[in-house]
Specification:
alpha+beta; 20% strand; single chain; 4-stranded antiparallel sheet; 4 strands; 5 helices
Length: 140
Amino acid sequence: MKKSCLVAVITVLAAVAGALAAVAVYLHRREKELDEYEQLLFSEDLDEDTVMMDALEAGAADFEADGMVMEVRCEPDDFNTVVKALEDKGYTFLSADIAMVPQNYISLTDEGDLKNMQKLIDMLEDNDDVQNVWHNWENE
């Protein structure tokens, strides 16, 4: 993380949380809660079993289908290999990118917490030094 980005994130967290001590704990906890995976999304009307077998043969670690959208997950080091292997078989992607995927989610019920969380996300997304914002907040 670039120093300017870290300063921006700490500034945003301090504005929302109000305590820098909580910032260090939050960043540490968040880092432990998220695992990095690669996601590949398909949109065509494809046979689920065929796509799953092709993805697993290409080196994917996990596969999930939800209607016409199929999600393939692999380790970051395998991303380019899996994408290339599937492209060579004629697949096209709605999206193929790196994402931080939560291992678990949290729900906020307190109105103040909900407001602060939304403010935090908005401030981070509006900051030019921040490229992506991932979280494990289950927004209902």
